[in-house]
């Protein structure tokens, strides 16, 4: 019997509550519609990671789990503080090679992360089209504080600064594909067009468009 893959898959997310998630989608979407899209994106992400071999799957959650959470995940509460501090705290729940992803890229596929934890590298980095990043992996998650804490988040330079920090720490970095985050309505449409067949996010967005028509 083969050993389980060494990687831990870690998702950092907010509970999809109206008014607390995807606020930049309003307008044109209502707060409820934005939350529905956020839930669909998160659900797609969680189910994609179930298709990717892993030793553990952990959800660092700001809020309370709902029916959107499939079996197979350990749930850990997010710590207070800025996003950099919350990322560091999320990594602290893990040991061994760990890949952290967010809830904003429902077009993610298991194939995109298939080599994480298996290619002998120290870090894995998934840049986002808006200048941020959608994934960050560390062979040793205990190094998260040194390489993440203090990185300015939610700017068009966040990704570049984060990758420089990895390199300056002497880590060998594997770059993952560039993906587009869902932030505004134009992003939602573009991302839905890239989603695989059966995507909940694409189905929800298309159903909203049907109502408008």
UniProtKB/TrEMBL annotation:
It comes from the Bacteria. It holds the Pfam family DUF2064. GO terms for molecular function: transferase activity. The keyword Ubl conjugation does not apply. Keywords: Transferase. InterPro entries: Nucleotide-diphossugar_trans (IPR029044), Trfase_1_rSAM/seldom-assoc (IPR018641). PANTHER family: GLYCOSYLTRANSFERASE (PTHR36529:SF1), SLL1095 PROTEIN (PTHR36529). This is Glycosyl transferase. The lineage of its organism: Bacteria, Bacillati, Actinomycetota, Actinomycetes, Kitasatosporales.
